[in-house]
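> example.struct
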């Protein structure tokens, strides 16, 4: 390990410790985590994760609960449901036509049993297998894998933004580059909590527009905040 990487890992660890002491993480704030806790069913977690794409966790949970009430979130019920019924049930989550098609296609090709089989594979094999499923990209795969204890980090828009502003990933890095950068800086036992903390930090302080840099608990470790305040003469 180079001296530079050791220095960056120390800085990353300090940032993580501050976020842990500052932010409160609740399962109900994260749809996939909440459903995993309530059901321990990877198929249901996968469905709510798909619903959460391009919408808030609150809306995804509302859509999931309505879908469960009207149809039932099982592969058998969803694979035989009318597409219009699925669409109406998940409308609140946005992109409901695309998501409804993906959910029904997914239900036809997998269920809780074969998802459990995939989750028993090593992390990279499981990532590849999951991404062969309809509407399952790297982020959705990593969310599911992380919840089931696999060593990976999911990167949503909040995690991407926070990582880059804090200088923990390349400003122009794509999904895989950001993911691997974070995995190189943090210890494996921290992987699962990093997305939750970074998402919470992004929602509370490091907002996409008008970030609250002046009250940010990690401001002095943030190149973006220090540069912004220097430009403003603060």
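> example.seq
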């Amino acid at each position: 390990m180079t001296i530079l990487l050791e220095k960056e890992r120390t800085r990353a660890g300090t940032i993580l410790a501050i976020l842990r002491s500052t932010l409160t993480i609740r399962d109900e704030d994260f749809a996939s985590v909440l459903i995993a806790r309530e059901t321990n069913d990877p198929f249901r977690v996968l469905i709510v994760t798909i619903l959460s794409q391009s919408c808030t966790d609150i809306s995804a949970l509302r859509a999931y609960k309505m879908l469960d009430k009207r149809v039932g979130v099982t592969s058998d019920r969803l694979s035989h449901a009318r597409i219009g019924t699925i669409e109406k049930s998940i409308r609140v989550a946005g992109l409901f036509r695309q998501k409804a098609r993906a959910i029904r296609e997914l239900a036809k090709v997998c269920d809780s049993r074969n998802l459990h089989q995939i989750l028993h594979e090593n992390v990279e094999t499981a990532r590849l297998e999951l991404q062969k499923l309809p509407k399952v990209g790297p982020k959705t795969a990593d969310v599911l894998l992380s919840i089931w204890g696999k060593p990976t980090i999911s990167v949503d828009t909040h995690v991407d933004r926070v990582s880059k502003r804090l200088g923990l990933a390349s400003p122009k890095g794509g999904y895989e580059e950001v993911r691997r950068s974070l995995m190189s800086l943090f210890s494996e036992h921290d992987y699962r909590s990093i997305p939750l903390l970074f998402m919470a930090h992004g929602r509370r302080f490091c907002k996409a527009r008008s970030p609250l840099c002046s009250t940010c608990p990690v401001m002095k470790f943030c190149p973006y905040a220090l540069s912004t305040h220097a430009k403003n003469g603060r």
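> remarks
The chain has a mean pLDDT of 93.
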